[in-house]
UniProtKB/TrEMBL annotation:
InterPro entries: DUF8155_C (IPR058817), DUF8155_N (IPR058468), Dup_hybrid_motif (IPR011055). It holds the Pfam family DUF8155_C. Residues 4-150, 157-290 form the DUF8155 domain. This is Peptidase family M23.
């Protein structure tokens, strides 16, 4: 049974993703990455707590070595008493240098400390909190074992024809002006799959992704092909997608991939992962997905 993340928890963040990660903790959507409001450089230092409760423990954990990241990340464990049905669960929070310690009381929205750019991040990933939830009888230190999560907000699925104009660039990615958020700040949106639902995940630079709130789909449902603009992406078992052997192209040239997530900020737009290719501001782009599997 999935744990529902209530609207007050999610509403204090600009973006979230349950699947856009290479790590097993996100398998089947069993962890969520929460992105606070960011600065123009894609960074932020504020780490608002997703939950209220009592801090059980903080500890340093070794992170994969990366030239742009510190040697250690940090784990914060919180005994939750809210919001909503999270009472009695243990929150497992990563990527925050803690300003709290065991025994401290925190309310939802209180600062837990400063976000850290850990070695778990790919270079195109912005700062965020990684959160998993466990029953108190589960081992809170293991990387895997968290409960499946479900966003407790209605997601707006935005039609996107795969085209757009580049509005911002970084060393490893570019952002398009489409799809456009119709009401920034009022709702979370994401890219719509052809048969409905909001797509989530790193296509195909991570092994799989997800499709949220697709009508008629439950976690235990049979396999269903998932596509975008007629391009087959993979097969969903319930909401979890195993990507096909696909290549994402921008103007007919291969790029690393397409980042898919849920967002409520005005800067929402397709994010092209392209560390080996540059784009110019104002450049018109058409994105397609080539698959070795024929869905017809």
């Amino acid at each position: 049974m999935a744990v529902t993340l209530p609207e007050p928890l999610l509403a204090q963040y600009q973006r979230f993703s349950l699947y856009n990660s290479p790590y097993p903790a996100h398998d089947e959507g069993c962890a969520i990455d929460l992105y606070p409001g960011t600065l123009r450089d894609g960074r932020t230092s504020t780490a608002p707590s997703p939950v209220s409760g009592t801090v059980l423990e903080t500890r340093a954990v070794r992170a994969p070595p990366k030239p742009y990241a510190p040697e250690h990340d940090h784990l914060i464990l919180v005994d939750c008493d809210g919001p909503g049905d999270l009472e009695g669960l243990t929150a497992r929070i990563l990527h925050v240098a803690p300003a709290v310690e065991a025994g401290d009381r925190v309310e939802r929205g209180d600062s837990l400390g400063e976000l850290v750019r850990a070695g778990f991040f790919a270079p195109w990933v912005d700062n965020h909190l990684h959160v998993g939830l466990r029953r108190p009888d589960q081992n809170p230190h293991r990387a895997s074992g968290s409960l499946p999560l479900e966003p407790g907000v209605e997601l707006r699925a935005l039609e996107w024809d795969g085209t757009g104009t580049v509005v911002s660039t970084r060393a490893t990615y570019a952002v398009l002006d489409a799809p456009i958020h119709p009401a920034p700040g009022e709702a979370f949106v994401g890219v719509r799959a052809d048969r409905g639902g909001v797509l989530d995940g790193g296509l195909p630079h991570y092994d799989g992704g997800g499709v949220h709130q697709r009508s008629g789909i439950a976690l235990e449902d049979e396999s269903v092909p998932i596509s975008l603009n007629g391009d087959r992406l993979g097969v969903a078992q319930g909401r979890t997608i195993a990507w096909d052997d696909v290549v994402v192209t921008a103007n007919d040239e291969a790029i690393t991939g397409l980042s898919l997530f849920c967002a409520r900020d005005a800067d929402f737009g397709a994010k092209l992962i392209c560390p080996d290719r540059s784009f110019d501001i104002g450049e018109r782009v058409r994105v397609r997905v080539r698959s070795s599997v024929d869905d017809r």
